[in-house]
Structures are given as C-alpha cells and as structure tokens.
Amino acid sequence: MSERPISEDDLQAFVDGAVDAAREGVVRSYLAAHPDAAARVSGYAAQREALREALAPIAEEPVPSTLNLDRLLAERRRPPRAPWPMAAAACALLALGSAGGWVARGFGMPPQAGVSALGQEAAENYRVYAADRFYPVEFTARDSGALSQWISERLNRSVTAPDLTSAGYRLMGGRLVATPHGPAGLFLYSRSGGQRLEVFIRPMRLNRNARMTEHAYGGLGGVAWSDDGLGYSLIGDAPAKVLHPLADEVRRQVRTLGA
Amino acid sequence: MNDVKRLVEPLIPALRRYAGALLRDGDAADDLVQDCLERAISRWGQRRADGDTRTWLFAILHNLAMSRLRREARRGAHLTLESADETALSQAPDQEHRLRHGELLRAVAALPEDQRSVLLLVSVEDLSYAETARVLGAPVGTVMSRLSRARERLRQAMMGESAPVARAHLRRVK
C-alpha cells in the first residue's frame, strides 16, 4: 500500500491534534526525518499554546451585566411594535409627498425654514434611525465623548448629549445626519420598555431664538425650539404634551452647560 | 426560550474572547457580543434544529465583527493599535509573560483579517476546520491555506520578537 504524501494540511492538523489515528504515525515519522518541518511544527504548537494563554484572561473575566441573557431575553419579550406606526409613517410620507409637490410648485416661495423645518427634519430622521434594528447609532453611548466631538466639529458649536437618565431614558448614542440646512446632530435614547427618543440639534439661520412649540408628525410627537442660534427638536413615539417636560429638561441642561 | 439560556449562556465567555481578540478593544467587543446575543435571541427560531449552536453564534459574531471592522476602516480607523490596551488583553502573572503576550497579540493584530479569524477560531476557540469554514462561509481548503499562512507569518514575526531584549530595544528605535 503506498502512503499518501505528507501535506501541509497534515502538519496543521498535527498541531491542532486533529490528525486521525491512522495518519498520526506517518506524520510523526515524517517529522522525525525532517528537522526543518519538525521545527516549524513545534513552533506552531508553541504559538498555539501562547495564544491560548494570552487570551484566556478574557474568558475568565466575569461576564458584564450588559450581556446578561435574562435581561436580554426580557427586553425581547416587550410587546412587539404594532403595525400601526408603519401605517402612520406611510400616511406621514404621503402627506410629505404632497407638501413637497406643493412647495415645488410655488417656485418663487422661500423654502420652508425655521423651527418648523427643524422639527420636520427631526421627525424624518427619527423614522429612519429610531426604527433601525441594526445600526440606529454610529457611535454608541460608550463613545459619547467622540460623538460629541464629532458633532461639535461639524456644527461648529459645542454640543453634548443631554442626560435624560432621570426620566428613565438611557443614551444609546448618536450620529451626524444631513438636512437641507446642513449637518445636524442626532442623539438617540431608549427606555427599558424599548421606547426610543430622539434629540436633534442643528444651527439655525432663521428663528435663532424661538420659544418651544409642540408638533405632531403622524403618530410621532415633537417639541422644537431654539436657543442662541442652535435649534433643538425632541421627538418620540408619544404626544408632544407628554414629551414637553423632557424638552424642558434638555433646555435646562443646555442652558446650564452654556452658562 | 429556556433553550437559549441553556445553550447560549455557557458560550458567552468564548464569544467575548473572540470578539476581544479580533477588535482589541474590550468595550467594543462587548458591544459586539451584545449585538450578537440580541440577534441570536431574535433569530432563535430560524437556526437549524440539528445545527450546532456554537458554530451558529460564532458565525453571527464573526459577521458583525467584519462589518464593524469594515465600517471602521471606511471611517479611517479611529481605533489604532496604540489605543488598544495590551495589558487589558493579557494579564499574565509576571511581567515577562505579559510582554511576550503583548508582542504576540500585536503580531496577531498585524495579520490580514481573514487569516486572523481562522487562526483564532481554530487555535483558541477549538472550532474544527469544517466548523470554521461554516463560520467564515468559505471552503475548508481556504480555511487550511489561511491557517497555514497565518501560522507561518506569526512564527516569522515572533522569531524577530523573541530576540534578546537589548535587540528589541534597538529595533524599536527605528
């Protein structure tokens, strides 16, 4: 019976202890006769051990609470988002479509601007990002420093994510988004029930200091205002009246930090 | 859903280790593992009943890691090797060990992504070649050739590194 020639796969399998018993003897005698190959294989074996040893501490660490399966399972069991927000979004999009057509028809008219445009942009972004199951945010809360820096640089204004933990909303993170009026910063928050909240910020040319106004965007509620040339809109899946205290809190923090 | 807990929970430390070794950033790795677990929970019904949970989970995690690394590369990799804390990855009992482990992990990090994944899945996570192939969605032959290239490359790198300390200092100057 002629033996299959020794292959590189045999040598790798030998390192991993994955050579079948019948083949092992053949590999061993090959290595005994070929010191170069033997040196290489023993180098790989040592490397394998060192790598396992170097990475073992990670697997021995206590599992962080963010990876607690019971909690992840419980969050999963929250009532599924009903189809009606989809219908509401579709209605809103229809409305937007007709509004867009109307604006386009009035060619000489000034573009929609000011706080109402800001709120509209915020609501549109909420629909895209708050509903996203995979990458709602570009930077997570863990990188909130880098996130604030990024947004501040692009808006050319100092912006930090408001802290809404007192209201039960945890910062998920955020991203930079585009609007017809330039870049805007978007921060997303979530509550244990899964509800998401958005704080949307961009510089204002019009309405540089506007009082708070409540808006409804087909199922979504919003509160928009501006302060010292920066416009803010807070959007959530609740009536604007319910969201108003949160907007007050955001404004309070912004003013405190700005002062 | 009791199955999820019974089958998935024991694998979390290994998932953290793989994500940590790939991303070299503990926080980012845990974010990734969290994504992986959430996805596993939501797709639990879709996994093959006869399939191996470990391979399935590693495949989810691997795909998430690759898309994260690609996004980072597109963004200009704000996470550099220098910013990753080696001691956080390797806490060997003595200093010399820790240094060696640091060098080894640096050399692993310098491997091309596809070789690094194979090396880690086979050498550290004890996946079989066939399981590794399933995780990567690549043929076994590809896994074998990546494995052998990764090991040789790492060996060459470490032969340089294992030189006496004085030489290592000299080399670092350049």
Total number of helical segments of chain B?
10
Largest sheet of chain A: 7 strands, antiparallel
Number of helical segments of chain A? Answer: 8
Strand-residue fraction of chain B?
under 5%
Spell the H/E element sequence of chain B: HHHHHHHHHH
Helix proportion of chain B: over 70%
Strand share of the residues of chain A? 15-25%
How many strands in all of chain A? Answer: 7
Task: Describe what you observe in this structure.
The complex is a heterodimer of chains A (259) and B (174). With 259 residues, chain A is α+β, with helices and mostly antiparallel strands. Chain A contains eight helices and seven strands. In chain A, strand 3 and strand 4 (196-203) form a beta hairpin. In chain A, helix 1 (8-15) crosses helix 3. The longest helix of chain A is centred in the N-terminal third of the chain and has 26 residues, at 35-60. In chain A, 31% of the residues are buried. Chain B is mainly alpha-helical. Chain B is 74% helix and 0% strand. Chain B is built from ten helices and no strands. Chain B is globular, with a radius of gyration of 17 Å. In chain B, 36% of the residues are buried. The model of chain B is unreliable at 78-93 and 163-174 (pLDDT under 50).
Topology:
The complex is a heterodimer of chains A (259) and B (174).
Chain A: H1 8-15, H2 21-33, H3 35-60, H4 69-76, H5 84-105, H6 114-130, E1 139-140, H7 144-155, E2 170-179, E3 182-190, E4 196-203, E5 213-217, E6 220-227, E7 230-236, H8 240-258
Antiparallel strand pairs in A: 1-2, 2-3, 3-4, 4-7, 5-6, 6-7
Chain B: H1 2-8, H2 12-23, H3 26-42, H4 53-74, H5 86-89, H6 95-109, H7 113-124, H8 129-136, H9 140-161, H10 165-173
Helix pairs in contact in B: 2-3, 2-4, 3-4, 4-8, 6-9, 7-9, 8-9
